[in-house]
């Protein structure tokens, strides 16, 4: 039986990319590996939390979680998130900002040889974490900010605009941080200030982040 700092706390976590279908054989997506989210899922479980992992398509072994919900699109991820946002919600997924306006029933065919251009109509996807932040009772909300410039000001803007309790800011222009690498360098941004953590493996960072989140969650839950 677990006796970690988050024993009995229900954590819902999104991870990985989303895939936005264009037709039965094509999609729009991104390079998210899901590594950070999966490492967090494992670390939350190790801390005693009851973890519900909502995952986009990744090439990773399933971590030891209470429930693994596999989704493809942002709309599916949103529905899964709202179905059970938990006591603490962590949005680690790299959700596609836009999706094709229509999904063709059949494979889209090439135009004739005389036509070289093709225009794709896209529409905005829902902001999953912002929608979960509007659900009641509101979970303790943790989001990520992956930026290549003005990291801390964008992170603080996200904290306020999406009504989050904590933003984990990630400078993805660094060679030792972000997508598809095994290390990460982050700064925690919340209403009390900023806290930079040393660059380290995603596994060890996940453990440190879960401790930081657990402390803040307990303080928040007492209020
Ligand atoms: O606005 P931006 O995408 O940079 O915000 C990143 C944070 O918001 C991450 O925590 C990400 O998981 C979440 N997000 C989301 N739904 C979206 C876009 C981002 O949950 N459509």
From TrEMBL:
User: Keyword set for this entry?
Assistant: Decarboxylase, Flavoprotein, FMN, Ligase, Lyase, Magnesium, Metal-binding, Multifunctional enzyme
Specify where the region named Phosphopantothenate--cysteine ligase lies, as residue ranges: 11-223
Metabolic or biological pathway, per its Swiss-Prot or TrEMBL entry: Cofactor biosynthesis; coenzyme A biosynthesis; CoA from (R)-pantothenate: step 3/5; Cofactor biosynthesis; coenzyme A biosynthesis; CoA from (R)-pantothenate: step 2/5
- DNA/pantothenate metabolism flavoprotein C-terminal domain residues are 6-215
Q: Which GO terms describe its biological process?
A: coenzyme A biosynthetic process; pantothenate catabolic process
Annotated binding of CTP, by residue: 97, 107, 126-129, 144, 158, 162
| Annotated cofactor note | Binds 1 FMN per subunit.
**Transmembrane annotation, as ranges:** none
Cofactor names from the entry are: FMN; Mg(2+)
Q: What is its EC number?
A: 4.1.1.36, 6.3.2.5
A GO CC annotation given for this chain: phosphopantothenoylcysteine decarboxylase complex
Q: Which GO terms describe its molecular function?
A: FMN binding; metal ion binding; phosphopantothenate--cysteine ligase activity; phosphopantothenoylcysteine decarboxylase activity
Provide the catalytic activity annotation: N-[(R)-4-phosphopantothenoyl]-L-cysteine + H(+) = (R)-4'-phosphopantetheine + CO2; (R)-4'-phosphopantothenate + L-cysteine + CTP = N-[(R)-4-phosphopantothenoyl]-L-cysteine + CMP + diphosphate + H(+)
Q: Which family does it belong to?
A: In the C-terminal section; belongs to the PPC synthetase family. In the N-terminal section; belongs to the HFCD (homo-oligomeric flavin containing Cys decarboxylase) superfamily.
The record describes the protein's role as: Catalyzes two sequential steps in the biosynthesis of coenzyme A. In the first step cysteine is conjugated to 4'-phosphopantothenate to form 4-phosphopantothenoylcysteine. In the second step the latter compound is decarboxylated to form 4'-phosphopantotheine. Catalyzes two steps in the biosynthesis of coenzyme A. In the first step cysteine is conjugated to 4'-phosphopantothenate to form 4-phosphopantothenoylcysteine, in the latter compound is decarboxylated to form 4'-phosphopantotheine.
Name under which the protein is recorded: Coenzyme A biosynthesis bifunctional protein CoaBC
Q: Which organism is it from?
A: Simiduia agarivorans (strain DSM 21679 / JCM 13881 / BCRC 17597 / SA1)
What gene name is given for the protein in this entry? coaBC
């Amino acid at each position: 039986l677990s006796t970690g700092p988050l024993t009995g706390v229900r954590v819902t976590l999104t991870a990985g990319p989303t895939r936005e279908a264009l037709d039965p054989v094509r999609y729009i997506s991104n390079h998210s590996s899901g590594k950070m989210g999966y490492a967090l899922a494992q670390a939350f479980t190790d801390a005693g939390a009851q973890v519900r992992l909502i995952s986009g398509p990744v090439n990773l072994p399933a971590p030891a979680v209470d429930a693994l919900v596999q989704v493809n699109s942002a709309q599916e991820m949103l529905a899964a998130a709202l179905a059970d946002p938990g006591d603490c919600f962590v949005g680690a997924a790299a959700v596609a900002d836009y999706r094709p306006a229509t999904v063709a029933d059949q494979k889209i065919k090439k135009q004739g040889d005389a036509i070289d251009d093709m225009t794709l109509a896209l529409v905005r996807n829902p902001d999953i974490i912002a929608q979960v932040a509007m659900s009641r009772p509101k979970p303790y909300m943790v989001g990520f900010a992956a930026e290549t410039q003005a990291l801390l000001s964008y992170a603080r803007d996200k904290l306020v605009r999406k009504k989050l309790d904590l933003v984990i800011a990630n400078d993805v222009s660094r060679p030792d941080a972000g997508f598809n690498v095994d290390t990460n360098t982050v700064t925690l941004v919340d209403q009390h200030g900023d806290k930079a953590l040393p660059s380290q493996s995603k596994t060890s960072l996940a453990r440190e982040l879960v401790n930081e989140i657990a402390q803040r969650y307990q303080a928040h839950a007492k209020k």
